[in-house]
């Protein structure tokens, strides 16, 4: 089979697209005929080795997959012929999804409702699962709370806004003027307020809207000033950290701990099997119950694997890119 894989960690030049043997599922695993996958920011970190994880070579890239089960090991035969998805290939020793066939342990497979398209789910799983786990598993969101989302127009940020609004939160999101209407439309009328982060008065607007009242903050940009966040947090507020700039600013720990504010680091690569399954259900619910959709900006084939990673390294990817693998 023709696959996109690495023979060593490094730059995009390490990516090769050529023939590999079709893998065989072992007991408890299936072989998924992959129709759609996607490109995730974390793929660059796995490829380069910046996020250390097991990558047995030749190592197939790609985390998310939607397809049909075409072969099954003992104990997984009941899944044959079913349309399924997964969101945790391509790291932690598991071969990836940028191939026409991928082995998936059955506990990492999720059913796909008929009305959800392959490409939409492949593009949705990573950002929506991240949003789900950030809000619920790490953020302990409760209906009626006030949530600040940094980067509300982005892939993860828009999913955070939609999910928090769906759960009855009041949401304040940073988003440029050009994106504001799209972000506000992710929640029922009046539930989502936006502040343009490029506006020189953005910090003051956030203080006015939220000063001392933010129960939960998830900043997908990693750029919101920790001193500002300390002004915004409610007593017992939670800050879920999912991104950080190259030179993180000083964190005002004294101002945070004296308000019982907690900081929770979260990276989806460390989510458990149960958490990922819960997040996949959350992703489908988000697609079914809210207007949120992943913003698909490009659809490519396996031959684009290397150039996609070059664009990713150069910061040139906006929205979600879908990898179409089988017709
Ligand atoms: N921890 C995890 O498990 C996990 C999982 C998935 C993703 N991530 C990380 O999460 C981050 C976001 O990913 P993504 O795919 O959602 O990226 P994205 O679509 O590019 O979203 C980032 C958003 O941040 C906004 N932004 C940029 N500078 C800002 C500032 N100074 N203040 C407020 N907002 C600002 C951007 O808006 P403009 O460009 O319009 O300014 C954009 O809407 C990445 O660092 C990614 O690696 C982490």
From TrEMBL:
Keywords, ordered alphabetically: NADP
| This protein's record includes keyword Membrane | no
Q: Name one GO molecular function term.
A: oxidoreductase activity
* Regions crossing the membrane: none
Q: Does the keyword Iron apply?
A: no
Output the Pfam families linked to this UniProt entry.
Answer: ADH_N, ADH_zinc_N
Q: Which residues form the Enoyl reductase (ER) domain?
A: 10-323
Q: Which PANTHER family match?
A: QUINONE OXIDOREDUCTASE
What is the name of this protein?
Oxidoreductase
What species was this sequence derived from? Brachybacterium avium
Per the UniProt record, the lineage of the source organism begins with: Bacteria, Bacillati, Actinomycetota, Actinomycetes, Micrococcales
